Amino acid sequence: MKRRDFFRKGLPSYIYKMGSGFMKEAGIGEENKDYFDSFESAYPFLSEVSMEMLYQAAAQVGIDPAGKTKLELAREVYEKRGIAYHDG
Known about the structure:
Layout: H1 3-26, H2 39-48, H3 51-61, H4 70-80
Helix pairs in contact: 3-4
C-alpha cells in the first residue's frame, strides 16, 4: 500500500474499525432507552400528563383506574407491563 493510500484509506478504516469495536464492547450506541423504562424516568412526564391519558393506558393493560392517584395508577401500569419499581 502506498503512503498516500494508507493515509487516505487505510488509517481511517483502521480507526473506524477500532472505534466501532470499542463502542460495541462498551455498550455505547446501543442505548435505546425507552422513556418509560423506569418510574423515575417517567416522573417528569407524569407531572404533565392528564389523568385521561393514564386512564387510557390503564384500560389497555386491563386495570380499573377508579379511585387511584397518578402515582398509584402509573405504578400499576408499570407492574402490569413488567417494569419493576422500588420505593426508596
